[in-house]
Amino acid sequence: MTDHPIIPLAGVIGSPIAHSKSPVLHAHWLKTYGIRGFYIPMDVAQANLREVIAALPRAGFVGCNVTIPHKETVLGLADVVTDRAALIGAANTLIFRKDGRIHADNTDGYGFIANLRQNAPGWAPAAGPAAVIGAGGAARAVVASLIEVGVPEIRIANRTRTRAEVLRSEFGAKIVVHDWVQAGNMLEGAATVINTTSLGMEGKPDFRVPLDGLSPGAVVNDLVYTPLRTKFLEEAAAAGCVTVDGLGMLLHQAAPAFERWFGTRPEIDQRTRDVVLGG
Ligand code: NAP
Fold first, then answer.
1. How far is the CA of 252 from the centre of ligand 1 (A)?
2. Is residue 135 domain-shared with residue 210, that is, in the same domain?
3. What is the mean pLDDT of residues 2-20?
4. Which of 35, 95, 175, 232 is within CB 3.0–4.6 Å of 168 for a Cys-Cys bond?
5. Is residue 245 a contact partner of residue 229, using CB atoms and an 8 Å limit?
6. What does R_g of the chain's alpha carbons equal in angstroms?
7. What is the pTM of this model?
8. pLDDT band with cut points at 50, 70 and 90 for residue 1
9. Ligand 1 center to residue 240 CA distance, Å?
């Protein structure tokens, strides 16, 4: 790898990858800040992952994002893993350092919190319990970051209860596991409510958790962003909650990676949202 690639390259590795919004987002920022670089989607099979990642720095790549299904595997391919990536058990960002070492980080939790802070400015993490619906990969980043910002109690319900129990054993006593069939009950008194499942996403089953327990004024966030205004967010808004869509998390998780690779901290504004939404 040359010390300073003339045209720095980055990209996203996953499979499938065609649906990813990251190439449009990074291309927008590269253009906005006049940076002579490129961000490329790369469909890579599990069997080729190690070889591809080892070759990228030699081709002028300064780093890459990693998405499903490689987020966990890449931890084993990195030389340095940040504490938060280790805690979450997955990485979404690789940085190819000048000394040849591969640095793995996870910015999903940061993106989740930054989205709430930007779009629900009055949000006070310590104001009360958080209710997390789901216990998949995204939930791990959400739970880790909620603990970090001082949420006093985190209630979790997941269709497959054992996955929620695993979060309880890994993240400790602040986690309280609730039954999936009674997930609506854990919303009572919750100051923050997050849907981390794929329910409500285009092409997926509807979100059916009863929302009668929502407190007016609670901050409600859906990680799903296709559609942008999910039925869950519509119902929460009708109940008097402050609602935040999932697009901001995607944008905010990308900002620290862009800064590390290309040297400029990008701004997340309405124009950024419009570009990613195809407007
Ligand atoms: P994942 O690891 O596959 O987890 C999926 C979660 O959804 C699990 O809790 C799963 O429950 C639940 N689920 C799926 N189908 C269900 C059904 N029919 N009924 C009940 N629960 C169901 O996926 P992930 O990576 O965590 O992603 C989850 C969602 O978050 C996706 O929609 C993804 O697009 C979104 N996301 C958004 C961002 C963002 O930047 N906004 C970032 C990451 C993820 P089981 O454990 O029972 O299967």
1. 19
2. yes
3. 87
4. 175
5. yes
6. 19
7. 0.95
8. very low
9. 25
